[in-house]
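Hi,

I'm pasting everything inline rather than attaching a file, because the server keeps stripping attachments. The sequence lines come first, and each chain or strand is labelled.
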Amino acid sequence: MLDVVSGFVTELRAAGLPVGLSESLDAVAAVGHVDLSSRAELRSALAATLVKRQDHRATFDTVFDLWFSTRARTATDHGGGQHDLVTPDAPAGDEADLDDDALSVMVADALEDGDPERIAALARLAVALFAGMGSRRQVGAAYHLHQVMRRLDTEGALARLMGATGFDDDGGRPGSLDARLRADDYRASAAELRRQVEDEVRRRLVAERGPAAVARSLRRPLPEDVDFMHASRDEMDDLRRALLPLSRRLAVRLARRRRHRRQGSLDFRSTVRHSLSFGGVPAEPRFRHRRPSKPEIVVVADVSGSVAAFARFTLQFIHALSGQFSRVRSFVFVDGIDEVTRLFEGADDLAHAVQRVNTEADVIAGAGHSDYGNALSVFWQRWGSELTKRTTVVVLGDARNNYHDTSTWAVAEIARRSRHVWWLNPEPRSYWDTGDSVISEYSAHCDGVFECRNLRQLEHFVERMG
Amino acid sequence: MGDRLGSATQVRAALESVGYLADEAIAGVVFLADRLDKPVLVEGPAGTGKTELAKSVAAMSRARLIRLQCYEGLDEAKALYEWNYRKQLLRIQAEGATGAGSGRAWSEVEGDIFSEDFLLTRPLLEAIRADEPVVLLVDEIDRLEVETEALLLEVLSDWQVSVPELGTVRATRIPLVFLTSNNTRDLSEALKRRCLYLHVDYPSPERERAIVMAKVPGIAEHLADQVARVVRSIRRLEPTKPPSVSETLDWARTLMLLDIDALDAASVVGTLHVLLKNRADIDRAARQLSTQTLPGD
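And the predicted assembly:
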């Protein structure tokens, strides 16, 4: 058993999971206590000892399935060869020429039924038939997944099923509650089918190419690392979902740090009073609490097409943290500039507020191309007098000025009146000052210019500022 | 613990007998923790029954539950032990007042005031020193600062606490330990290495239905099924705070009190405030779930 477990651990490490020595010792000890004839028990014992992060669990399951499903068979052949384990089940003759109609009936039936076994069987069959695996080309898992999902057409099947229940997916024409619940059952089944297909693709890839190769092609960037400027729609959804928990975590950190800064002066009254319970010995000195100084934030964001996604995320992020600042005001511009603070104040749903920024802010003064010079000088003229020494100004934008006048004097004036001026640029540093980017003309007057291409960098910046 | 658990299946049955419906993974990890004498780190979203698990394990094994609620600023004095200054001062003063102690050497007095009588045990030391079976619950460990986390390491791996004046206190019997975390920050590798890991997520509709059936006496199976599915649908909408299992149970009880035996959109919308505690979430869920059949449609 020791060999089996240590081999498994080696395989996990090859797939990129950090498994330490003490963890593998625990795994060996744990295996001694479980009923080895039960796969589920073995799996949960190994998972509990070897995997310490939930996002590693999927990889663990894949490696587990491969290592423990076929090992018994091959171990007798040649003492534990690893990568030639799985021969894809050859599709049975009558299934091989499955036509589209028959397939869509099968998909619809499986979704309607919702039985996990049936869905798993369908996933296996579909991958065997449509994934085009085992071919000469070394393409990523995403390609195979796409191939299978295209043929399965779960969206179409869902639409048909929902049509039958009288429920419209957009929520535009809702049916009864029961129909709604049934629709959600179908959606859950569809999600399950997709997950099963993904698992199956991964299993086969690992079997074909070994865990290390697949680990590389599988590794999806964490939402924190997705580039704002080039995010796909799915990645945008991930980002949106990651934003709220991230801002909560950061708020906790900021508040904690503020509380733990140097304590105030000795509070004599309180110390003496407290000493009474020690018979007059001032055993525990008491200190005054300092009022934490919270910065006032003014965000000035370029919301023109190229950087809109970045500006939206940053606005949402900073407003989600507004409790950590004494005040947050937001301005957006393209070639005209408008204040949008009112859209965020008292808004329960920040995503909705950001949506309203898009439709309600009056930001087009001329041709609708970014004009930093005009926007910043108008900002200075209209709101400059409201800046104080407690204000931190954050400018968001790529400083691509479309060859307009830069009006750097406005930034200089703003910087003179406020505490700090920070500039966040969503472009990689190597692109700065190429083409119509004039970032260095502005940066001369800023306290700092930061590259801010993903949530991680954004979080880092906000933490510094808070 | 005195009597070891037999197998994961037995754990599951025992937990069910005290009203906690564990799935295979949960039962397996609890069983292993008992066998390997290792603490269990339970992670997962708020309200999925992490704390309840520890309580139920205590009830199941008829052990005493000792709970250490973590918060930032928690220190040794609150987690391990503290000397009772007040009593020590009183002791010295009493000695001086009677004059009896005048002949005694300081070392004698010192030995006297740093003895068990003047020690205030806090949860960790208490769990180590207990003679009867105990379950130690360290709740919301992610609220501790990284530095304070280290406090736990000696206890969790060697089952001992060092008190300089008294020497090392070793556990007479190893307690079953549960650490819960809501994942607001990453825990240190050192801590994770010492623990078994268990991720508890929201239950599947089937399991949630079973939980509702077990915890809300007298509820009809049909209603329990609808409750579980509506809650699943609401969680799918990704509200800012998804309804927890305990909120599901509250909701089911509310429905029972209101004599609702089959859900329709109106009754769901009318009682949504039991499930969701944020106005924007309630509005959105109500919009999504309500019926507005268009005329002639």
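Confidence is low (pLDDT under 50) at residues 71-96, 168-174 of chain A.

If the labels don't parse on your end, tell me and I'll reformat.
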